[in-house]
Amino acid sequence: MQIDDVAPYLNAVREQRPLIHCITNDVTQAITANALLALGASPVMARDAAEVEEVVRRAAALVINLGTPTPARIDASVKAAEVARALGIPWVLDPVGVGASALRRDAAAALLTKGPAVIRGNAAEAACLSGQTTTVVPGVDAVGAVPTARDAAVDLAAVRDSVVAVTAARDCIADRTRALEIDNGVVMMTRVTGLGCCTTALVAAFLAVSEDAFGAAVAALTIMGIAGERAAGTARGPGSLEPALLDSLYDIGPADLVREARWHPLSTPAAEGVAL
Ligand SMILES: Nc1ncnc2c1ncn2[C@@H]1O[C@H](COP(=O)(O)OP(=O)(O)OP(=O)(O)O)[C@@H](O)[C@H]1O
Ligand SMILES: Cc1ncsc1CCO
Ligand SMILES: [Mg+2]
């Protein structure tokens, strides 16, 4: 895979303005909707069981984010995922803080049976989904002794039939046969809540315009990292990073991606010698 393969996805989103149905958390709904709008997609936040089936039918892709789960919201999410799967609408799971409670773990387990095209989380969340119960996840941020994104992504991709996209200092996207690291982004991004949730939503926007889930995840994580770097050039701290990052998502063009992406293809144990 080359950057020239995914850079055109950006114009495809801007031309098609795909409707992205987000079932997300109480903390990051507004920044997630704004990130999708800045990129060029069209968000709809809808999470009541009374309407999710109707809304997802009209969507080009679905996000299910477990950030602030309730039993009712989880039921609605399962329902939406079932409809999406039946209709061939791609969807992405963000297992926010999955290690923090049994409610989140059970919800993630139920949703994983509904065929997400992509799982996007931080390294602690991905390790938890792989069954590495020794990883402690006290909240929603990856802290303490967590594996690298590379190990977390490759391990989870080996046990799940999904693309896995793990964000960290060096992001990693993996499926069963391929893996790619992305070295874009700045550490200040971890001081603004919801930039991971936004990254997940961007994955959905690219899933809406591409058949290739691996490419969609790579495009989203590359763009988020570059947007963060560009925003950090003018930001004085996390407060000004957030609006500057939205501006960067709005400004960024395919040629910027080609120039600024820092990719490192990996060969995974499952695929020694398989070219990207
Ligand atoms: N240490 C780091 N250095 C540089 N960039 C980073 C670092 N950690 C995360 N990022 C970048 O920040 C963005 C958000 O990823 P992060 O891993 O913080 O998501 P998250 O933990 O799910 O966040 P949230 O749950 O608040 O939405 C990604 O683009 C990622 O590449
Ligand atoms: C801080 C926080 N708590 C639940 S969801 C969320 C937003 C980041 O995922
Ligand atoms: Mg997160």
Automatic annotation (TrEMBL):
Residue sites binding ATP per the record: 120, 167
Cofactor: Mg(2+)
Keyword Isomerase (UniProt): no
Keyword Nucleotide-binding: yes
EC number: 2.7.1.50
Annotated coiled-coil segments of the chain: none
UniProt cross-references to InterPro entries, sorted A to Z: Hyethyz_kinase, Ribokinase-like
Pathway(s) annotated for this protein in UniProt: Cofactor biosynthesis; thiamine diphosphate biosynthesis; 4-methyl-5-(2-phosphoethyl)-thiazole from 5-(2-hydroxyethyl)-4-methylthiazole: step 1/1
UniProt superkingdom: Bacteria
Residue numbers binding substrate: 45, 194
GO biological process, one term: thiamine biosynthetic process
MF terms in GO: ATP binding; hydroxyethylthiazole kinase activity; magnesium ion binding
Keyword entries, A-Z: ATP-binding, Kinase, Magnesium, Metal-binding, Nucleotide-binding, Thiamine biosynthesis, Transferase
A Pfam family this chain is assigned to: HK
Catalytic activity: 5-(2-hydroxyethyl)-4-methylthiazole + ATP = 4-methyl-5-(2-phosphooxyethyl)-thiazole + ADP + H(+)
Family statement drawn from the similarity comment of this UniProt entry: Belongs to the Thz kinase family.
Function in brief: Catalyzes the phosphorylation of the hydroxyl group of 4-methyl-5-beta-hydroxyethylthiazole (THZ).
HAMAP family: Thz_kinase
The protein's name: Hydroxyethylthiazole kinase
Gene assigned in the entry: thiM
